[in-house]
Amino acid sequence: MKDVKTTELVIFAVLFLLVSGMGFVAAKWRRPTTMDSLDEWGLGGRNFGSWVTWFLIGGDIYTAYTFVAVPALVFGAGAAGFYAVPYTIVVYPLVFLVLIRLWSVSHVHGFVTPADFVRARFGSPTLALAVAITGIVATMPYIALQLVGIEAVLKSMGVNGHWPILIAFAILAAYTYQSGLRAPALIAFVKDGLIYLVIIVAVLYIPHKLGGWGHIFDAGQAKFDGTKKDPTDGVLLNHNNQLNYAMLALGSAMALFLYPHSITGILASKNRNVIKRNMAALPAYSFVLGLIALLGLMAIAAKVVPITTDGKPDSNTVVPLLFDKMFPDWFTGVAFAAVGIGALVPAAIMSIAAANLFTRNIYKEFIKRDATPKQEATVSKLVSLVVKVGAVACILLLDPQFSIDLQLIGGVIILQTLPAVGLGLMTRWFHRGALIAGLVAGLAAGLYMLYEIPNPAKHKEHFGGSAYKLSELGFDTKMTVYVGILALLVNVAVAIVGTVICKVAKLADGIDATKTSDYTADEGDPKVHPMELSAH
Amino acid sequence: MASKEDPAPEPRRSDRSHWNWLLVVPVVVPLLTFLYNKDTPRLAGFPAFYWMQLAFIPLGVACTAIVYHMTKKRED
Questions:
Q1: Which terminus, N or C, of chain B has the lesser number of Cβ atoms within 10 Å?
Q2: What pLDDT digit, counting tens, does each position of A72-121 carry?
Q3: Cα A77–A82–A83 angle (5° rounding)?
């Protein structure tokens, strides 16, 4: 291995410690009278304005793993990896009208998690439990993957071994425990500032050094032309993967705001206009993400060779290596710090969201029904620690590839909560039993299809990707489609047929604790308390 | 797939507006791969595939911002 790069490491460590200090100070930010409720600890007081929300949600959904993995995908496959751009364009207009309804109904009823909403809307603790468990399972590997982002950066600085990650996550766990959502909200300002700085410098400076954009794309084409074996790569899409490209973008867009951590960012904002304004302003991040994706092609043009660990090339190291090769040492340190800090913000929010799901929809529902707000906050704080220990254990004890597989699965399974959460916000037509059946059917279909997909390039027989061959379903074509969408079709079909059957058979349905006017309520409107109204 | 129409008429306030239909544009256009899956015309060295998709970002921002401004008054 190479020697440790002192300049880079010092700058990285200084910036990292600086934001950690901010994380601890954040508890005093906006002076909460008490931290002893989930509204304060888990949602930052439900009072974030447009700017804080923009940085928070931006910091939340454009994660360190995204910054490392998307260009790694473009490095390996070319155009197919660029799906992140249409994905993050489509998502905001798609959820614009849905999220303001979620905010309103959550504001009126004091919901903290998407499962809280499902519980009240369909009067079904079982459906809420299924949604909560799906959310926790989908979020856990996502937290673990943030570690992969930090690890890629550390490897590039010549630092090996797991102790730096343990230290980083211990610090993260401590200030999340103390400051709750205020910590990532405050750190997000630094994180996003650094990311914007690094990327703007990178897209101006690196192409200049490499001989211009035209040359970068031509170098990419030359590399992909050389790999005739793999028909799915190239600077453009081909006939067979275009449908998958569009469906992956659409499916990912529908899944994004079903993730508990994205919803946490939405519920922490203070009124509907904050959300609407952010739906128009968040695509600024998509532009940065598009440029970041192109770093993968720059790495090809710069002839970057990924670091090999245990005999396998780790393509997640291409962007750190590109920075290292192109930038002076001190700026590489800044760029690495941007990725490292970029891991802290989403990891904190995700652990808070997962902890809230456990507290509200498992602990309060099934273990201690009369839990006080203070007890809820205490449980959530402790669970947020457990979640992080679990994420670290995932990375240390298991093959990191396992976390990557799980995250791929996570996107498919979280999409299966769309009928209950997303469609549930728009209509009360579905029957609770049919929604449970649909969710189970969608999960089963999704897992089965993912299991069946091999990846010859990585020598894997199962969980090799998310592009399912339509020929497996009997269609005479080589086209592929994103598994999540196919599983969702199964899910929705079962939910529709099931609802019709339940209604014809006159099976008892849950009671809807929400009113039509709850979905358009805004800041200052009266709130309904407590949630026990929906008990059945 | 997340349907955009409000299913029931709202008694007090409503999110309904003809302007909401404008949101369909940035949801559908970026998914039409046949529009942009080509190399030429290149812009500043970028193949059409890349610069056109990046150009959809301001399109999405414009549509969403228009809907926000045109529906804002109804909330007051």
A1: C
A2: 889 988 999 999 999 999 999 999 999 999 999 999 999 999 999 999 99
A3: 110
User: Could B72 and A276 be called an inter-chain contact, meaning their C-beta atoms sit closer than 8 Å?
Assistant: yes
d(C-alpha A411, C-alpha A255), whole Å = 7
pLDDT average, residue stretch A348-360: 94
Distance in angstroms (rounded) separating the CA atoms of residues A125 and A115: 9
A168-206: pLDDT as tens digits: 888 889 989 988 999 999 899 888 899 889 989 998 999
**Where residue A2 falls among pLDDT bands split at 50, 70, 90?**
low
Q: Per the CB < 8 Å rule, is A213 touching B1? A: no
Round to whole Å and give the CA distance between A99 and A272: 9
Return the pLDDT at B3: 46
Q: Which residue of B has its CA nearest to A84?
A: B53
Residue B13 contacts A where some CB pair is shorter than 8 Å: yes
Q: pTM of the full predicted structure?
A: 0.90
Q: What is the ipTM of this complex?
A: 0.87
* Nearest chain A Cα distance for residue B52, angstroms: 11
Is A131 contained in some domain?
Answer: yes
Structural domain spans, chain B: 18-75
Q: Is residue A203 part of a domain?
A: yes
Tokens of A512: 């809807």
Instruction: Say which CATH number the domain at A236 has.
Output: 1.20.1730.10
- CA distances for A383 relative to A154, A234, A346, A357, angstroms: 28, 45, 16, 10
Joined tokens for residue A345: 């913000």
Measured between alpha carbons, how far is A57 from A242 in angstroms, rounded to an integer?
A: 29
Does A55 fall in a domain?
yes
CB pairs under 8 A between A and B: 151
Q: Report the pLDDT averaged over residues A436-462.
A: 89
Distance (Å) from the alpha carbon of B20 to chain A's nearest alpha carbon: 8
Number of domains observed in the structure of chain A? 1
- The domain in which residue A392 lies consists of 6-415
> Cα(A332)–Cα(A13) distance, rounded to whole angstroms?
13
| Strand A312-313 with A467-469, pairing | unpaired
Whether residue A241 lies inside any domain: the answer is yes
Quick check: A236 and B47 CB within 8 A? Answer: yes
Asked if residues A422 and A254 have their Cβ atoms less than 8 Å apart, the reply is yes
A535 Cβ neighbours under 8 A, 6+ residues apart: none
